[in-house]
Design brief:
The chain has helices at about 65-75, 80-90, 95-100, 115-130, 145-160, 165-175, 185-195; strands spanning about 5-15, 15-20, 25-30, 40-50, 55-60. With about 200 residues, it is α+β, with helices and mostly antiparallel strands. The protein is globular and about 55 Å long.
Length: about 200
């Protein structure tokens, strides 16, 4: 199973591209991500290998959180890989999470995903989002800093704040130059000051 590719784009056509890695060309479905790419670009992608009886397809994502969301979506009955790719590439992980938190069905409606399917996505993902098992990738920080941010979110939720408030304050925290050097307790205190100001 292919999980990651790094190579040069040979060609792009209708949301798909061929990536040359070690002399081998891999055809990867990228959705709207392909719109920002040009032939000859060097690219690194997280890959989901999708296998059916007579078909093997590769779906590519620029970040791990995009791949995780895609794999979560295709586990929901009625959502195929192309619909899931469209949601992740057109809307993005943070907007999908926001739509789930706000129960905003209209935000999840893309070609191939109607109202009933959008409602099902919200229903299936709500618990996972509220429990913090679906999180937005926090840039290219180390696993320690990512874990620290998760602990801050957990602490804020334990204090009664919702995921949207926690996510909003994390964005502000990451603008602080020295946030990575602070302890979880210091970050929680800083978060509470920002939420309550």
């Amino acid at each position: 199973m292919i999980g990651y590719l790094q190579g040069k784009i040979k060609s792009i056509d209708k949301g798909k591209c061929i990536i040359i890695c070690g002399g081998v060309g891999y055809r990867v479905e990228l959705g709207s991500l392909a719109e920002n790419l040009t032939e000859g670009d060097n690219i690194s992608l997280y890959i989901h290998t999708h296998q059916r009886e007579n078909e093997l397809s590769l779906f590519g994502f620029s970040g791990k959180s995009d791949l995780d969301m895609f794999e979560t979506l295709i586990d929901i009955s009625g959502i195929g890989p192309k619909g899931a790719l469209q949601l992740v590439s057109d809307i993005g992980v943070s907007q999908i999470i926001r739509a789930v938190v706000d129960r905003d069905v209209s935000c999840l409606k893309v070609p191939g995903i109607g109202k009933k399917t959008a409602e099902k996505i919200i229903l299936e993902l709500r618990d996972k989002v509220e429990k913090g098992s679906i999180v937005i990738e926090q840039g290219k920080g180390t696993s320690k800093t990512t874990q620290k941010l998760r602990e801050v979110v957990g602490a804020l939720k334990a204090l009664g704040y919702n995921i949207r408030q926690a996510e909003g304050v994390l964005t502000e925290l990451k603008r602080e130059n020295d946030w990575e050097d602070k302890t979880v307790q210091e970050l929680v205190k800083l978060s509470l000051n920002k939420i309550n100001k």
